[in-house]
Amino acid sequence: MKVDIRDLGLRFVFGGLAVAACYVVLQLVPSKSFAGIFAAFPAVMAAAVVMAGHFGNSEQAADIALGASAGMLGCTICVFTATFCMEHLGKWGLSLGIALVVWFFSSYAAVMLMQGLLEKRKKQRNSRGKAL
Fold first, then answer.
1. CA gap 104, 60 in Å, rounded
2. N or C: which end of the chain has fewer CB within 10 A?
3. Which phi and psi angles does 119 have, rounded to 5°?
4. Could you tell me if residue 100 is inside a domain?
5. Arithmetic mean of pLDDT, 2-14
6. Beta-carbon neighbour count of residue 64 at 10 Å?
7. Does any domain span residue 61?
8. Phi, psi (5° rounding) for residue 2?
9. What's the burial of 71, exposed, middle or buried (CB within 10 Å: 0-12/13-18/19+)?
């Protein structure tokens, strides 16, 4: 795999600016629970989709977005796991470690499920098109 320094630099700038903007919002919004929404801002996803679309094509950007959707589902499960573990284990570091492992496996399961459903739907469309 060839690394494009320009691509990498643009991703760094876009992602970094988004993270910095979210940090500013976190500091300015008085309600930290509401401000926490911005801690989950999909900066990496946005930068990845923009770059895939710009340097590749819409199909590549859609693939990135599909993977990001699975990762975000995994993130939801990760947060619930972290909260549960912190409340019951009382050790934030261990809880975070467990939650990150859960994030990876739940995200992987979600992307495999989503891809399977999309393939099934595509086959159904193709079989309907041939029947007409």
1. 22
2. N
3. -65, -40
4. yes
5. 79
6. 19
7. no
8. -90, 135
9. buried
The number of beta carbons lying within 10 Å of the beta carbon of residue 95 is 19
For residue 56, pLDDT beyond 90 = no
94 vs 79: CA distance, rounded Å:
14
- Over range 114-122, report the average pLDDT: 91
Q: Which of 37, 56, 75 is the last residue of a domain?
A: 56
pLDDT in tens, 65-88: 888 889 899 999 999 999 999 999
DSSP per residue, 40-83: T--HHHHHHHHHHHHHS-HHHHHHHHHHHHHHHHHHHHHHHHHH
**pTM of the model as a whole:** 0.69
Structure tokens at 113: 């499920």
Query: 114-118: which pairs have CB atoms within 8 A and are 24 or more residues apart?
Result: 114/66, 114/69, 114/70, 115/66, 118/66
Residue 40 in domain: yes
Looking at the fold, whether 74 and 50 belong to one and the same domain comes out as no
Sequence-separated (6 or more) residues with CB below 8 Å from residue 28: none
